[in-house]
Description:
Blueprint: E1 10-11, E2 35-44, E3 47-55, E4 73-80, E5 92-96, E6 98-103, E7 109-113, E8 125-128, E9 133-136, E10 138-145, E11 149-150, E12 156-157, E13 162-168, H1 170-173, E14 175-179, E15 185-189, E16 198-204, H2 222-225, H3 236-241, E17 246-251, H4 260-277, E18 280-290, H5 292-303, E19 310-314, H6 331-335, E20 342-346, H7 355-364, E21 369-373, E22 376-378, E23 381-383, H8 389-393, E24 398-399, E25 402-403, H9 404-409
Amino acid sequence: MAKAFSRRTALVTGAGVTAGLAVPGVARATPTGGVGFTLGAETLDGGEQITSITLETARLGPIDPASLTTGTFAVHAKATSPIDTGGQDIGYDFDRTVTAARLDHRGRVVLDLDHAEGRPGGGTLGYIDAKARNVRLDLVYTLKQNAPLRSRHGHPVTLTAFTQGRLANPEVDAFSYHTSRSGMKYRLYSPSPRPGRRPLIVWLHGGGEGASLPDGYYDNETTLRANRGALGFATREAQSIFDGAYVVAPQCTSAWMDDGPRFAPLIHEIVRDVLRTHPVDPGRVLVAGCSNGGYMSLKMTTVYPRTFAASVPICGVVAGRKAGDPPLVPDAELTAISTPTWLVASLDDDTVDPRANTVHAHELIPRSEVTLYDHVVRNGHRFPGHWSWIYVARNDPSTGGTHVWQWMAGKRR
């Protein structure tokens, strides 16, 4: 159920070759094969956006930084869906605004691009309504030089061809790629090595980040790009609180709520794999998840009551999908949960009724904690009420002066 609007990433390697403006009196021109560039991305609270472009200009020799302005290059972005959308347009065709232009420490030109929560034209994901899925958009960036650069010796430099390279998101790239023996894909963050066993945090994504197998789409990417749910636990702040933790993010082959009892053993297999192959403390395995993943984090503690030291279900579902349907997590299962549980939701959630799900679960789960927000607001931007995972990803929920990450870090089975 987690939904990100136009926030997905797939880059087209080798795309974006275009001619620049001819500049008279050029002393240096584009080398054979053109100048390559990298797309720099950041996962914001509302999803991943392209925030910068780095041109591999160091081999052209020293460039005078005074010759580089926000108007030196024009940037155009085109995004299309990698799979059939049933006629829905989830992409864009957009001129990006360059907000700053500079040279990095290696002498490469870096163009910072205008970006902000909810701003169109920079997202890397698109949400297909009919499939209830986020997909990584195929991105083609086109660059054009509008004015000459100058070398440190005063010679004009023009670039006449550009070649798009990889997309770089350091936070996402820190997670390695894996597939379990049962075929479920997952990403894994490993902390800096040191003696001793570490906690393991299992992040279970929302419905929008699952695969779409009928389309042959199973990318192991959207789990880290649609929101900061897993990434938050890999930040320097979180790693300090947890004293270095592994973070694993499985990707469902559809949606967890489609068949929680079937998916539970597949998630548990991944947990066992990480326990077997990494120095993880089996008494400090923690689970958290949002929306579909909030349901699944609860389900995991009912199926495996002795596995997890703590659980943080965010805007999770326990009631039936619609009126008259049996509950996804029956009351008897909720009252039997022995895993320490902290539930989070926003009262203005119009996707999952917080009272029929989060509040109801809190009333039944023994000794559970709950944090209920009125709205989901961060840095002045108001998000949909369903997106309360943003607060957990920023360690905002607290009770009695203890924040949720510190609470999780203190739990042992």
